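Format notes (please read before filing issues)

Several people have asked whether sequences and structure tokens are stored in separate files. They are not. Every record keeps both together, in the order shown below: the sequence lines, then the token lines. Line labels are part of the format and must not be stripped during preprocessing.
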Amino acid sequence: MTSFELETIPFKAVGVRNWAKEDSKHRNWPVVYVLDQAAKHPTTSKTFDVYVGETVNAESRLLQHLSNPDRQHLVKAHVIVGSTFNKSACLDLESQLVRLLSGDGTYKVLNRNDGVTDADYYDREMYRESFQDIFERLRVEGIFTKSITEIENSDLFKLSPFKSLTDDQNIAVMEILKALFDDLKHPTKNPEPIVVEGGPGTGKTIVASFMLKLIADIKSTQTDDSFDRDTIFSEFFTSDYRNLLGDFKFGIVIPQQSLRSSISRVFARTPGLSKQQVLNPFQLGESDEKWDLLIVDETHRLSLRANQPSAAQNKKFKQINEKLFEADSSEITQLDWIKKKSTLQILLLDKRQTVRPADLAESDVKRLVEESKQNHRHFELTTQMRVQAGDDYIGYIRSILDPTPAEDRFEPPTPRRFDGYDLRFFDNLREMHEAIRERDREKGLARLVAGYAWEWKSKKNKKVADIEIDGCDLQWNQTDKDWINSKGAVDQVGSIHTVQGYDLNYAGVIIGPDLRYDKKRGELVLSAADYFDKKGKENNRVLGKKYTDEDILRYVSNIYAVLLTRGILGTYVYVCDPELREYLRPFFTA
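Then the structure lines:
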């Protein structure tokens, strides 16, 4: 392990004392530094600012910051000097500190997100051992308030725009920015939407968050902000691109309430972004504002004209249609609102994650994809970042749960193992719950999730159980906002509507009696009487559509595929239907 020194001095003292003369490494040695505004006062909810940097000339770099009006309010400088640190190690440490600070939530991180790297280099593991000690020293200084595990399990960390992107994500963001700026340079009346397609765990939400932060940084950057930074996005940090974004208004639309709430918290703590930029479709439709760019996350979850969850929303749907199109039409969807309210759209989607009949029709999503390919505005994310079982796991799960009738589909996959991934099959729900509790004590973020195969009785009566199996008396999630991180969540069961778009360390998936297996026909079947999501099987009277059991089966299959691809480190499975249990057992116990 490499040794290091951490020196904390008043920031303004850098310019008034011979600080650098006391140690030559302050003028000619790779260092990392942290500039913070102040320790968060325990009696206030105010969030202060922090900036992290790396340089080979600490004195010169800190003096540059001191002359920058945007940095002059910072109070302390913490300079980290490692006895064997090189440029690569400093870049790595800088990136780690930026990511962890953004997830801790105590400070607003003033850095741009284009400099966060995750490059390999000689003896990286040795350096990273010392990084943990550096983190603990900074924690003593009040820079961090949580442990690394607590930070990495938080939504602020997982959904932060301060990420190092995968190769395909970097390529997608680069090409999207080029297309975006080309649209701004050569405006047309109705530019076609850009479509970003990717399966579970490919980081669609991260791409959206990263891109909005990057646009905000380009828009606000000053000519002296780059210094010696060289990144793949540095070409966009020029006055020409900044001028194109002069009055550029941009935001993100997220249909799911829980994910939207989490992104709002992230944006509230990210300079250049605000929670006002995070909208649900109804807020967008009712607003009088026009947007230059809207990014839509989980586009497949936008709604058709259908019976909404409340009478108020049914009324709003009609009013918004009349406001935007001067007449109500049953053919108008929430995607039409987004196109009407914005000049440019970036649509992130996965056609295999529609889970309700009121979601955009699969045919509409397929058409979006095909049209974007024809217009050369289609980008695909393929690198699976979530599940440590690897890229094959997603396809494996989807093949197992393929609801296509036996005569029309390919044979299911051969049962296989996924080395290094904790995949288990349980015959007793109590035992699975105990295993999830144990994983939660060890790693955190281990949760039970299930299909909507039981009534939500506890919504009205907090004393009753919703799910009673094997002596387990369990309730559904007791909040629909940030349930994963809520108190008592490890002893509750999350539904698709609280976990879609999120990561877990371990997912204990209860496959309810709504999904069954017909052994004679050799195919999955739906038990409609055991499926309790009213909006999940409701006919669409507005559009005159009736949904068969085969239609609903596809949505239920999608739900379980989503639930089975939430766990980063492991997935535990319990199946209610005896025949389905025996059919699925080999696939999870090979």
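For reference, the curators noted about this record: The first helix runs from residue 58 to 66. The radius of gyration is 26 Å.
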